[in-house]
Write a structure and sequence with these properties.
The chain is of the alpha/beta class. Helix content is about 40%, strand content about 25%. The strands form 2 sheets. A 6-stranded mixed sheet has the order 6-7-8-3-9-10, with helices on both faces. A hairpin with a 2-residue loop joins strand 4 and strand 5.
Length: about 230
């Protein structure tokens, strides 16, 4: 479904991604693990068109994405939930969700809104509330819900558990698993490696811009280096 081949991405003269290649198959959850600064967010930004690779290619459903504008990538079926949520703080919950569907002219928007409310009942309760006054957990729900309103086939999630209490982390990950079971493919960047691997099918480990490990979620969870570096063992 999604394929990255030989990606080299720079910030000025800083070489952020070095020959990165990975694959996400349809209906999978693929976890991308690594320490801060490893290149995880850079990878997602490159997929969603916010960064341009100097070398290498990005393809989605056998079509090239390299050089395609970010809004056109959304229209092709990829939605990005960025690190830090990036909701529209001055808009209401309803208005934020409507912004997620801004490219759509089909008849499925109302149905997708109900789907979001089923996944996140709290958003329905807060429908008229200004988004900037929501709790951190509610804002994360809204960021994911807004992305789902684009009706994506591939969802990019960047650190969905950041700053959340443990009980909310479990709730968010249960919902991510549910979204996947409903048919949405997911590429997940997450510092909480244990939670990520508990729902993922496969994973990759990034170190200083390079893929150093790849395998099934079970294989990575059992890997001594992964357990030491990311699982606190």
């Amino acid at each position: 479904m999604l394929r990255l081949d030989g990606l080299d991405v720079y910030y000025g003269e800083i070489h952020a991604l070095r020959g990165v290649g990975l694959e996400v198959r349809e209906r999978e959850i693929v976890a991308l693990l690594g320490n801060n600064g490893a290149g995880k967010s850079t990878t997602l930004k490159t997929v969603s068109g916010l960064l341009r690779p100097r070398r290498g290619t990005v393809s989605f459903e056998n079509g090239p994405l390299t050089g395609v504008a970010a809004h056109d990538i959304v229209a092709r079926g990829i939605a990005h939930v960025p690190e830090g949520r990036r909701i529209f703080n001055r808009l209401t919950v309803r208005e934020n969700l409507a912004m997620g569907a801004y490219l759509r002219d089909d008849g499925g928007v109302a149905g997708d809104l109900e789907r979001v409310f089923e996944l996140f009942p709290r958003l329905k309760e807060r429908i008229a509330q200004v988004a900037g006054t929501l709790s951190g957990g509610e804002q994360q729900m809204l960021a994911i819900g807004r992305a789902l309103m684009a009706s994506p086939r591939l969802l990019l999630l960047d650190e969905p558990s950041m700053g959340l209490a443990p009980v909310l982390v479990e709730q968010i990950f249960a919902t991510i698993d549910s979204i996947n079971r409903q048919g949405t493919t997911i590429l997940l960047v997450e510092q909480n490696a244990a939670m990520a691997l508990s729902i993922a099918h496969r994973g990759y480990v990034l170190e200083t811009g390079t893929i150093v490990l790849a395998g099934s979620a079970a294989e990575l969870a059992d890997n001594t280096d992964v357990r030491r570096a990311y699982l606190g063992e």
